[in-house]
Amino acid sequence: MPLSTQSQADIDQYILIASLDNARNLSNILKAISLRDHAIFNATQNGLKVTVEDSKCLQANAFIQADIFQEYIIKEDAVGFQVNLTVLLDCLTIFGGSTVPGVCTALRMCYNGYGYPLTLFLEEGGVVTVCKINTQEPEEPIDFDFCSTNVTNKVILQSDSLKEAFSELDMTSEVLQITMSPSHPYFRLSTFGNSGNAHYDYPKDSDMMELFQCTKIQTNRYKMSLLKPSTKALALSCKVSVRTDSRGFLSLQYLVRNDDGQICFVEYYCCPDEEVEEE
Amino acid sequence: MKFRAKIIDVGCLNHFTRVVNTVSRLTKACVLRLTCDHLYFVLSGRVASGGVSMWCELSQGNFFDEFQLEGVSADANEILLEVAPENLSRALKTAQNAKSVKIKLTKKSSACLTLAAELPSLSSVSRVVTHDIPVDVIPRRLWHDFREPQMPDFDVSIYLPPLKTLKSVVDRMKNLSNSLVLEANLNGEMNLKIDTDLVSVTTHFKDLGNPPWGDDGSQSSSPHRDPELMTEVCVDIRKLQQFLTGQQVHPSRAMCNIVDRRILHLIFLHEDVSLQYFIPALA
Asked: Among A164, B155, B234, B262, fewest CB within 10 Å belongs to which?
C-alpha cells in the first residue's frame, strides 16, 4: 500500500484523505454520473458527494458515505473542489478497466486544500501510479428545491424492470414522457420518435413495483438527451425511486450496491421540458 | 530471381500468420527481405512513418518445410520486395485450416507473391485458394536502406514490465496526453510519466531486471554508471501504443534500450522470431 511510502509529514499536509482497497468502489459510481467533464466534489464528515450538472436543467449526484472507505480523514467541516471527471476516471482505471477477480487497484485520494491538485496514489500488483489532477474553485451546485413535502407522485421499482425499457428508448424522440397516475396507466414511459410512439406501462400491482404512491395524474416531458445518460446509473442499481413534485420536476434515486455489497446512492434531478402537456 | 516456399505444419502456419498480423498492425507498407536462412520484415525510419523503424527477423527453417531461393545474383543471394503486409495477412486468413500453403514469387501483370492454400475438402480433390499479392522488387542499389540496424549505443537496457499492465497504463495515458516520458535505470526501475496542464501521472515499476549484455554491449562499458541514475526519452504515445496493441506473438523476452533523450529501442524475442522497434524521441 502506498501508505508505507508516505511520511507523517506528507500525511499531515492533507485536509482530506480517503482510501479504498478497491478503487472500483469509487470509479463505478462516478461512471454512473459521468455526463459531463466537470464534477464538483463536496466532502464532509458524512462522506463524499460528487455533483455533475448539465445545462442547468439536470443534476446528477453520487453519495459515497464515509464508512465505505477503509480510511476517511477530513480536517475541516467541508472540503470542496472541482475536477475534470473524465481525467479522474482515466486515473482511477489506470491499471485497466476490467481486471481479474481478486486483483484490485488500491486507492488513496488526498487533497491539500485550495489551490492544490487532487493527488491519487493507486497500487496494483506492486506497481504504484501517482496522479496529480488540477482542481478548480467549486461552483455552487444548483438547488433544485426538491423536498419530500412537495412530492405529488412516487414509485419505487426494481431496476431490472426499467433497464430493458431504457436501453430500448427511441433516441429519435426528443422527449421522454413520464405519466404517473392513481389509475390506469399508473406508471408509463412514452417516446414519440420517427418510427412512431412507444409506451412502456408498469401496473401498480406488478411484481417489480415495490411502492406505489400516486395522488394525482401527472404527465411531464423531459429532454431525452438529458435523461438518457441516467441509464448508466440504472444499470448499476438494484432499485430506483421515481418522484415528481408539483412543478413537474423529476427526481430519480438509485440504490447501488458496490463490489463489496455496500450501499451507495445516486440521484438525478431533471427539470421538465418547456412544453408541458396536461392530459 | 526465384523464390518458392511451403508450409505444411498447421502450428507453423498459425505462428507465421500471427507474426504477419503483428507486422500489418505496425505498418501499412514494409520491405520483405528473403535470404537462404531468414525472412525479414523491414521498415526503415523515414519521415513518412514518423521516424519509427522496425526489424522483424524470422528463421526460415522454423516455419517452412521447403524453401528455395535464387537471389538477384550469386554474390547477392537475396530478394527484397516492397509489400503491404495487410495483403499477406488477408491471404493467410483464408488459409487458416489449410493442409499446405505454398508461396511463390511470380510475374503476373507485375511482380507478385502468389500464395496458394490447399484447403481440406470432402471430395478426393483438394480445393486450392490462390492469392496474388502485388509486390515491388527493390533494386540492389537501394538495399543499403534495409540492412540490419546497429544496436544503438544505449545508456540503459531494461526488461519491460508485464505487457498487460504496460498496455493498460499506456492506453489510459494516451487519453490524457500526446507524449510520454519513459525513464529507467540499471537498478531495474522504470517510470512512465505524462505531464499536461490538466494532470500529471507517473507509474513506477520496480524489480524489472536489466539484461546482461556482456562485453559487446555498452551497458558494461560504463561500469561506473550510478545504477540509480535515470535515463529518459520522450516519445509520441500513439507510436508506443500502436506497438503494444499490435502484438499477437507473446514474447518470451521483452526489453528496451534507451539512448538518453534520443531513441527508445524495443526488443521482443521469441524462440524463432525477433522483433525490434525504434521510436525516436519527440523533437
From this structure: A164
Q: What is the rounded CA–CA span in Å between residue B84 and residue A218? A: 64
Give me the CATH topology for the region B2-145: Proliferating Cell Nuclear Antigen (3.70.10)
Residues of chain B with C-beta less than 8 angstroms from the C-beta of A126: 206-207
Q: A89 to chain B: nearest residue by CA?
A: B172
Name which of A84, A93, A130 is nearest B198 (Cβ-Cβ).
A84
Q: What is the pLDDT of residues A229-243, one digit of tens each?
A: 999 999 999 999 999
Question: Is this prediction's ipTM beyond 0.95?
Answer: no
Q: What angle do CA A197, A199, A205 make, to 5 degrees?
A: 170
pLDDT digits (tens, 9 = 90+) for A162-193: 998 898 888 899 999 999 999 989 999 999 99
Q: Is the pTM of this model over 0.80?
A: yes
Nearest by CB to residue A129, choosing from B197, B203, B207, is B203
Q: Quote the CA–CA distance of B187 and B209 in Å, as a whole number.
A: 7
| CB A131, CB A119: distance < 8 Å | yes
d(CA A95, CA A98): 9
Locate the chain A residue with the closest alpha carbon to B205.
Answer: A127
> What CATH architecture applies to the domain B156-280?
Box (3.70)
- Cβ-defined contact of A134 to B206 (cutoff 8 Å): no
State the first-to-last Cα distance of chain A, in angstroms, to the nearest integer. 60
B residues 152-191 near A, CB within 8 Å? 161, 164-165, 168-169, 171-173, 175-176
> Facing residues of A135 across strands?
none
Set of cell numbers at residue A31: 461512471
Please determine, looking at this structure, whether the domain spanning A151-270 carries the CATH number 3.40.30.10: no
Q: Are the beta carbons of A95 and B205 separated by less than 8 Å?
A: no
Domain residue limits, chain B = 2-145, 156-280
Domain A8-136, CATH class in plain words: alpha beta
Query: If you average pLDDT over every residue of chain A, what do you get?
Result: 91
What residue spans define the domains of chain A? 8-136, 151-270
Residue the block writes with cell 467541508: A78
Substitution target from A89, A99, A128, A135 for chain B, most B beta carbons within 10 A: A128
- For chain B, which ranges sit under pLDDT 70? 47-49, 214-224
Judge: B165–A129 Cβ closer than 8 Å, yes or no: no
Q: To which H or E segment does residue B10 belong?
A: helix B10-26
pLDDT above 80 (res A5): no
Q: Does residue A61 surpass a pLDDT of 60? A: yes
- Residues A210 and A237: beta-carbon distance below 8 Å: no
Distance of alpha carbon B131 from alpha carbon A178, whole angstroms: 59
Please say if the pLDDT value at position A128 is more than 70.
yes
